[in-house]
């Protein structure tokens, strides 16, 4: 018997993003159902309602998607969902809060490819400065890049305090080291840009964080990537569809938000398709997103 595929989409926020709903339906789910205002303590009950209402062999056709606006909460919800399974009653789970896991995965995968193709370097050989690091995309980007061995600096636009806390939480949760740096003035940002091989901008939409003057004073810069598609660009002069072209006035390669977004979309959609086609229930987080994004990035 062919089971209907059902996706229960949980978010701690007031609304589920239409972006995630559309991708899930386009990927092939028969039904998607949003649940809003979901607290961590609600996850177990919701998962158990989902597992016990279908026979065990329908578990693979039943999915949970975890949305939200912060990576640690998304991962805590993922753990709570896993703990709620009662074998053989098990279902698939995919966490991607604010699209951050798939966006960060796509950005780091594109940068990794550009480093290899244009500079014969690996992530483990480079210093990376991440702007917008207190955001959910920046956080996840830092974890993935540091896990691949990059020397990662997370830049605080309002000083050191919050990025210090984030660095400590990343060390505690993932066992990787990122260095907090103060980017609260143009002079401080210039120094950070000057010392970087890779610049990753994950700042708020429509906010320019790095200027052309700063880029031109970065002798070791190899790649600059930006996920903000709303003008002005996060990195001045970086075109939205840049895909490995030289960034004006530098010897660095630029990767723009539409090139990253293309891989992000295919990664998120691809993970939904894998959930739908899986023979056994699967669990996906940013690590799975990065594995798939690496295959997709060109
Ligand atoms: N291309 C794609 O496929 C794709 C997909 C998803 C998201 N995005 C983009 O990715 C970016 C990050 O998303 P997000 O959800 O992580 O965003 P977010 O939560 O709004 O955070 C973005 C970061 O920007 C910082 N910021 C805010 N105002 C700033 C300013 N004036 N100067 C410097 N930094 C500032 C925020 O700091 P605070 O912590 O102080 O607010 C935070 O660190 C956005 O531009 C979003 O549109 C792109």
Any key phrases for this structure?
5-stranded parallel β-sheet, 10 helices, Rossmann fold, 12 strands, alpha/beta, binds NADP nicotinamide-adenine-dinucleotide phosphate, oxidoreductase activity, 298 residues
**Cα end-to-end separation:** 39 Å
Q: If classified by CATH, what would the architecture of the largest domain be? A: 3-Layer(aba) Sandwich
CATH superfamily of the largest domain: NAD(P)-binding Rossmann-like Domain
Helix content: 40-55%
CA-based gyration radius: 20 Å
- Summed up, the domain count is 2
The main sheet comes to: 7 strands, mixed
**Spans where pLDDT lies below 50 across 5 or more residues:** none
Would you give an account of this structure?
The chain has 298 residues and is α/β, with parallel strands linked by helices. It folds into two domains: 6-95, Rossmann fold; 102-260, Rossmann fold, CATH 3.40.50. It is 43% helix and 17% strand. It has helices at 18-27, 40-52, 71-83, 100-119, 136-147, 161-174, 186-194, 212-216, 257-277, 286-296; strands at residues 6-10, 31-35, 62-66, 92-95, 127-131, 151-156, 179-182, 198-201, 223-226, 243-246, 253-255, 283-284. Helix 1 packs across helix 9 (257-277). The mean pLDDT is 97. The protein binds NADP nicotinamide-adenine-dinucleotide phosphate.
């Amino acid at each position: 018997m062919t089971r209907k595929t059902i996706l229960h989409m949980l978010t701690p926020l007031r609304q589920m993003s239409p972006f995630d709903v559309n991708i899930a339906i386009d990927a092939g789910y028969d039904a998607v159902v949003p649940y809003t205002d979901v607290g961590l303590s609600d996850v177990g009950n919701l998962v158990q309602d989902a597992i016990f209402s279908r026979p065990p062999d329908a578990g693979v056709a039943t999915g949970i998607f975890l949305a939200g606006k912060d990576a640690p909460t998304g991962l805590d919800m993922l753990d709570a969902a896993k703990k709620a399974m009662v074998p053989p009653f098990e279902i698939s789970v995919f966490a991607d809060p604010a699209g951050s896991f798939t966006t960060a995965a796509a950005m780091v995968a594109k940068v990794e490819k550009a480093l290899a193709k244009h500079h014969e370097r690996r992530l483990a050989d480079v210093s990376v400065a991440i702007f917008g690091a207190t955001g959910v995309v920046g956080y996840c980007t830092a974890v993935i890049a540091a896990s691949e061995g990059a020397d990662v600096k997370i830049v605080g636009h309002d000083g050191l305090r919050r990025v210090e806390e984030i660095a400590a939480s990343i060390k505690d949760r993932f066992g990787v080291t990122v260095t907090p740096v103060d980017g609260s003035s143009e002079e401080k940002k210039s120094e950070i840009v000057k010392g970087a091989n890779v610049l990753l901008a994950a700042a708020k939409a429509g906010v320019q964080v790095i200027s052309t003057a700063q880029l031109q004073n970065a002798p070791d810069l190899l790649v600059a990537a930006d996920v903000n598609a709303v003008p002005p660009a996060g990195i001045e002069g970086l075109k939205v569809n840049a895909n490995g072209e030289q960034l004006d006035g530098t010897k660095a390669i630029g990767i723009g938000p539409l090139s990253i977004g293309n891989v992000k979309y295919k990664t998120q959609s691809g993970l939904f398709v894998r959930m739908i086609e899986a023979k056994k229930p699967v669990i996906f987080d940013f690590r799975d997103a990065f594995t798939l994004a690496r295959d997709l990035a060109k």
